[in-house]
């Protein structure tokens, strides 16, 4: 039986774990030189001796690819080929354990597997460090990549280079890794590997003869991928004799064993009983267990420089094993590995239970999910309209969607997710405010906290560098779209005769809501998009109020760019007009900046609202209806004399369907 | 069980004589002579129709063959049972509704009336209304109903546009309607009402106003204007859902209503209720009973009633519903003497809520006098005088509260259901406070 031990059985993964096919697993060449044979109980207890793998026999690599280009399928084949898992038809995206990962064809949580592979009479230790498949997680990707010396850049032979291929390539390139281009899906009818070779040569400057053409689905040529890993990726440059220096590149939480940290050893050795220190928190722990991921945890006596595995050391919370942190031996401090950052949320959204009675269930679901995802920030929040809830910070849009989907799928929670906002910044000029905030530059998450212009030197908004890859026929439309989103063009490259790559600097808030949808619809689905963090830029931001008959609706206060105030204000007014039920009085809906009204709609008063026929047989029914309506009315939020159903707020605040 | 021909004849003669007497414009002036609990109106439900109308969700059945004799016996039995149970001594009005009660034989209607007259006092001037559908040859049948004791007709004319009539699933034409109306007026002068619908799918304001004008040339002294209510489960509802018919436009319906009521006012009609208009004092006393929360008995399948079962020693008013399906209802009547399926006691507050909701449908509204009959301690001023929200309605002239009582303005009447959503909670709140006087204020 495939043992779903360890983290796969952690409560957060329970939903996904159940979906794993119960496939038998007989083979794993744990010991060097061991032939493939079924495990016996005795052997399971036997711990492999990892000292037999010096750094020069180790290769650490990742697979990076655009969505659906076959990353997980290739990983499955590599695992099979090296005997890590059994060859069975059921091996589908073995490393993607979450339901949402399988459904959406993306990898959310990085997984790692150690492969043993003999080549030219020598046993190699290959560590496949699977990365999250989206640049929302670019920090995680970069940390995973920093544990590698090379990557397999998988490109679909039919679709060619896509936006994410480009973004991923540059992450690897910047990390100075060896890049092995792999053209996948050559079995497809419309496959054109030669065209893709040319694209790779043009965009990435990699000679076309370096491309390996495979079909991961059929297993065609996958062997040569492993050979290339050994021949073209250098071994890690590390020293076993130096004091321990280990990078935490991922961590998960297990209900019974605490935090399980995935580590890569840059120097030294670690074994059970060692006292280790986190460079970030300076906390000391005793190592309870070390081992390799095969892909499930397989304890070993020790891990040596250049190797990759897991470590359990009594950490209670994933924030104690932050991604990018360095671990060293107690009393042997080392220079921490470069590049550590705390997770920085880029997109914020309110999360509320559909029904307040669901509050506690939702709370516990969010707690459980965040146990494994320290990058989600959680702040309690409450809205007069939507009740008690939270403002959550996410790494990006996909991260937000995935989190929401997991809440719904794994915890059966139904939530209202409000329109996402981005963290703006203000540089304060008022000495009083600086004193109050204890800093000159503040981050504004909630529009209610937006400081007045008179107290501010400048406002800043987050920007991202976006990459669009599209068939050339859509270029004009896409450029117009980008311009409408206040983006500035950085460059434009024809990657072949009929495909173009555009780079734009986008204000983040211009792409958080429906940019991707618009892009997809105006390119008939052919354009792809990806983005990476590009810091902050000065922006003319203003606070916009929404008024109903002259009264401000606090829930709808919005921070917008000056240029967008009219469009955004008009949209909110129109949505309100469409969703506010008629009332006894006319409702004037206004969007205003300061005292200046920039958009206006009206909802006419009821002219007739009375039951036409009310005789003997109608009375009971009518009274019942009236009383139910009167009861419902009591629960409505009132702004002045206007009653606003929760539904209206949901329609106005909710993320509009995208996908 | 069937009453003798002789006795029916005697009552009918008196009733016909009563038609010629002048009528009183009595809405809002409750007759004090007898206790309200010994009087009632009677509703008789005839559950069958020839054809299903596309908009109707009433309790009606398209029969393959009606055993009218059995049904007649059951109606008679149930009338007797409920009259005894209620202890009602005087029946002020009888209304034959349906279904299509004009499909019943005059003999059946006569039998019910005679049973009532035997069990209680049915004054000769009592209003006895029959709902009738227009037909191509109305004459002799309407005369026979008159002979059976009917003295008022309510004609389901609905529209004077043949296309609309077809959409509504009516069996008659506009021509049939006018012919029936003329014949009815000849037979029941001054006591004929017609229904006209408004707010139909695809209906436009101007053509509808022309229909109303045309109707004014032909109609008698009573008119009902009913805005179409799209009811779930009707074929019209389904057609609108499927998009085969456009959804009725509420703004156009409001426009028709406003202009229609203006035209009728100018033609000398009094809008004495949301949908009802009368001139020359031809108000329906039966319907007035509903809006004034008088007692009413309901007999026949699915009929509703509200009364105090005094005959059984009760003191609390009950809302009662008879069994819906005609066959089951008949079985129950034969077994138990009545087919009451559901019986709910009304609390004092619930009754007051009805007094308010029903009373405000009328032009006189809820008078202080009327209110006091139901609640002698807590006045309308006590309940509504201090409320901020009610004050706003008064300030906006949607509602009036003065020495006469509480009533809707012309504009307010059209949005009464919205007003009630403010007034009903206010009544509930005042009632609670009244019940548990605050120790601080000392009441």
Which of globular, elongated, flat, extended, rod-shaped describes the shape of chain A?
globular
- The CATH topology of the largest domain in chain A turns out to be Rossmann fold
**Beta-strand share of residues of chain A:** 25-35%
Largest interface: A-B, 27 and 49 residues
Give the class of chain A from helix and strand content and strand pairing: alpha+beta
- What topology, given as strand order, has the largest sheet of chain A? 11-10-16-7-8-15-12-13
- In CATH, the homologous superfamily of the largest domain in chain A goes by the name P-loop containing nucleotide triphosphate hydrolases
Oligomer: heterodimer
Largest sheet geometry of chain A: 8 strands, antiparallel
**Distance from first to last alpha carbon of chain B:** 58 Å
Mean pLDDT of chain B: 91
Summarize the SSE layout with pairings.
The complex is a heterodimer of chains A (659) and B (443).
Chain A: H1 14-19, H2 41-45, E1 58-65, H3 71-81, H4 99-104, E2 112-119, E3 122-129, H5 138-146, E4 150-156, H6 163-174, E5 178-184, H7 193-204, E6 212-213, H8 222-232, E7 245-254, E8 258-267, E9 269-271, E10 275-278, E11 284-286, E12 289-293, E13 297-299, E14 302-304, E15 308-312, E16 326-329, E17 347-353, H9 359-371, E18 377-383, E19 387-394, H10 397-411, E20 415-417, E21 424-428, H11 431-437, E22 441-444, E23 456-471, H12 475-484, E24 488-496, E25 499-507, H13 515-522, E26 528-539, E27 541-548, E28 551-552, E29 558-561, H14 565-579, E30 587-593, E31 596-603, H15 619-634, E32 637-639, E33 642-644, H16 646-653
Parallel strand pairs in A: 1-3, 1-4, 4-5, 5-6
Antiparallel strand pairs in A: 2-3, 7-8, 7-16, 8-15, 9-14, 10-11, 10-16, 12-13, 12-15, 17-19, 17-20, 18-19, 21-22, 21-23, 23-25, 23-26, 24-25, 27-28, 27-29, 27-30, 30-31, 32-33
Helix pairs in contact in A: 9-10, 14-16
Chain B: H1 5-19, E1 39-46, H2 68-86, E2 90-98, H3 106-119, E3 127-132, H4 139-148, E4 152-158, H5 162-167, H6 174-187, E5 192-198, H7 205-218, E6 222-227, H8 235-242, H9 250-266, E7 270-273, E8 276-278, H10 285-291, E9 296-299, E10 304-307, E11 318-322, H11 326-336, E12 340-345, H12 348-359, E13 366-367, H13 368-374, H14 380-384, H15 388-395, E14 399-401, E15 405-408, H16 410-414, H17 416-435
Parallel strand pairs in B: 1-2, 1-9, 2-3, 3-4, 4-5, 5-6
Antiparallel strand pairs in B: 6-8, 7-8, 10-11, 11-12, 13-15, 14-15
């Amino acid at each position: 039986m495939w043992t779903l031990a360890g983290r796969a059985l952690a409560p957060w993964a329970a939903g996904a774990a159940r979906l794993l096919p119960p496939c038998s697993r007989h083979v794993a060449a744990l010991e060097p030189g061991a032939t493939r044979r079924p495990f016996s109980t005795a052997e399971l207890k036997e711990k492999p001796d990892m000292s037999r793998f010096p750094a020069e026999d180790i290769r650490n690599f990742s697979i990076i690819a655009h969505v659906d280009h076959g990353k997980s399928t290739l990983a499955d084949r590599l695992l099979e080929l090296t005997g890590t898992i059994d060859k069975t038809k059921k091996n589908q995206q073995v490393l993607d354990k979450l339901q949402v990962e399988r459904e959406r064809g993306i990898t959310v949580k990085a997984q790692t597997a150690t492969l043993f592979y003999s080549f030219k009479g020598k046993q190699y230790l290959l560590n496949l460090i699977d990365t999250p498949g989206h640049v929302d997680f670019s920090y995680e990707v970069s940390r995973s990549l920093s544990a590698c010396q090379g990557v397999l850049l998988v490109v679909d032979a039919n679709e060619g280079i896509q936006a994410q291929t480009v973004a991923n390539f540059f992450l690897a390139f910047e990390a100075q890794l060896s890049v092995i281009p792999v053209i996948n899906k050559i079995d497809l009818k419309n496959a054109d590997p030669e065209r893709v070779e040319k694209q790779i040569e043009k965009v990435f400057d990699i000679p076309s003869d370096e491309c390996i053409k495979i079909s991961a689905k059929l297993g065609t040529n996958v062997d040569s991928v492993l050979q290339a890993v050994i021949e073209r990726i250098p071994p890690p440059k590390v020293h076993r004799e130096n004091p321990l220096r280990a990078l935490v590149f991922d961590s998960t939480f297990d209900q019974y064993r605490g935090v399980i940290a995935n580590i890569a050893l840059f120097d030294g050795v670690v074994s059970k009983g060692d006292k280790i220190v986190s460079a970030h928190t300076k906390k000391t722990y005793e190592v309870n267990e070390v081992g390799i991921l095969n892909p499930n945890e397989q304890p070993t006596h020790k891990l040596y420089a250049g190797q990759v595995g897991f470590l359990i050391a009594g950490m209670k919370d994933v924030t104690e094993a932050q991604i990018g942190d360095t671990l060293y031996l107690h009393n042997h401090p080392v220079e921490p590995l470069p590049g550590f950052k705390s997770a920085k949320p880029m997109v914020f959204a309110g999360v509320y239970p559909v029904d307040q009675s669901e509050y506690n269930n939702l709370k516990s679901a969010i707690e459980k999910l965040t146990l494994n995802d320290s990058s989600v920030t959680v702040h309690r929040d409450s809205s007069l309209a939507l009740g008690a809830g939270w403002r959550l910070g996410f790494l990006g849009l996909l991260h937000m969607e995935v989190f929401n989907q997991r809440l719904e799928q794994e915890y059966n929670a139904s939530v209202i997710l409000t329109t996402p906002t981005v963290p703006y910044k203000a540089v304060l000029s008022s000495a009083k405010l600086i004193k109050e905030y204890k800093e000159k530059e503040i981050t504004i998450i909630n529009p209610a906290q937006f400081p007045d212009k008179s107290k501010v030197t400048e406002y800043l908004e987050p920007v991202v560098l976006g990459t669009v890859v599209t068939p050339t026929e859509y270029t004009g439309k896409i450029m117009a779209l980008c311009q409408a989103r206040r983006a500035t063009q950085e460059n434009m490259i024809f990657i072949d005769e009929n495909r173009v790559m555009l780079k734009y600097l986008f204000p983040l808030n211009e792409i958080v809501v429906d940019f991707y949808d618009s892009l997809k619809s105006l390119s008939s689905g052919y354009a792809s998009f990806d983005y990476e963090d590009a810091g902050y830029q000065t922006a003319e931001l203003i606070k916009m109020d929404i008024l109903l008959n002259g009264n401000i609706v606090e829930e709808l206060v919005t921070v917008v760019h000056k240029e967008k105030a009219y469009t955004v204000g008009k949209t909110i007014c129109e949505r309100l007009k469409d969703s506010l039920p008629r009332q006894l009085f006319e409702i004037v809906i206004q969007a205003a900046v300061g005292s200046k009204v920039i958009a206006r709609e009206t909802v006419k008063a009821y002219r007739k609202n009375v039951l036409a026929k009310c005789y003997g047989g109608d009375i009971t029914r009518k009274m019942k209806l009236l009383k139910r309506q009167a009861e419902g009315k009591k629960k409505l939020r009132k702004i002045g004399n206007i009653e606003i159903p929760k539904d209206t707020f949901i329609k106005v605040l909710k993320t509009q369907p995208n996908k | 069980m069937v009453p003798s021909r002789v006795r029916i004849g005697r009552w009918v003669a008196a009733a016909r004589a009563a038609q010629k007497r002048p009528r009183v414009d009595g809405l809002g002036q409750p007759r004090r002579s007898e206790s309200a609990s010994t009087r009632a109106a009677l509703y008789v439900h005839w559950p069958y129709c020839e054809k299903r109308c596309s908009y109707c969700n009433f309790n009606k059945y398209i029969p393959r063959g009606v055993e009218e004799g059995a049904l007649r016996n059951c109606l008679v039995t149930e009338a007797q049972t409920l009259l005894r149970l209620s202890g009602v001594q005087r029946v002020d009005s009888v209304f034959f509704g349906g279904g299509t009660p004009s499909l019943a034989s005059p003999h059946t209607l006569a039998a019910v009336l005679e049973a009532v007259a035997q069990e209680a006092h049915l004054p000769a001037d009592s209003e006895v209304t029959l709902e009738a559908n227009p037909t191509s040859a109305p004459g002799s049948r309407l005369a026979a109903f008159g002979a059976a004791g009917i003295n008022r007709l309510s004609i389901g004319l609905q529209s004077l546009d043949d296309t609309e009539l077809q959409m509504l699933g009516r069996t008659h034409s506009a021509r049939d309607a006018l012919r029936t109306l003329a014949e009815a007026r000849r037979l029941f002068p001054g006591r004929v009402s017609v229904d006209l619908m408004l707010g139909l799918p695809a209906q436009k304001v101007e053509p509808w106003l022309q229909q109303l004008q045309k109707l004014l040339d032909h109609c008698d002294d009573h008119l009902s204007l009913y805005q179409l209510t799209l009811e779930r489960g009707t074929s019209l509802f389904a057609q609108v859902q499927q998009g085969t018919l456009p959804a009725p436009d509420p703004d156009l319906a409001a426009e028709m209503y406003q202009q229609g009521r203006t035209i009728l006012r100018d033609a000398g009609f009094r809008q004495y209720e949301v949908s009802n208009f009368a001139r020359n004092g031809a108000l329906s006393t039966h319907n007035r009973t509903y809006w004034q929360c008088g007692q009413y008995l309901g007999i026949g399948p699915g009929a509703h009633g509200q009364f105090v079962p005094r005959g059984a020693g009760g003191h609390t008013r009950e809302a009662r519903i008879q069994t819906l399906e005609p066959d089951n209802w008949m079985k129950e009547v034969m077994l138990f003497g009545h087919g009451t399926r559901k019986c709910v006691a009304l609390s004092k507050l619930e009754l007051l809520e009805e007094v308010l909701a029903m009373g405000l449908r009328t032009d006189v509204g809820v008078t202080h006098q009327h209110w006091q009959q139901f609640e002698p301690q807590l006045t309308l001023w006590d309940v509504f005088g201090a409320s901020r929200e009610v004050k706003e309605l008064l300030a906006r002239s949607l509602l009036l509260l003065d020495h006469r009582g509480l009533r809707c303005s012309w504009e307010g009447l059209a949005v009464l259901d919205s007003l009630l959503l403010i007034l009903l909670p206010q009544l509930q709140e005042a009632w609670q406070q009244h019940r548990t006087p605050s120790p601080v204020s000392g009441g």
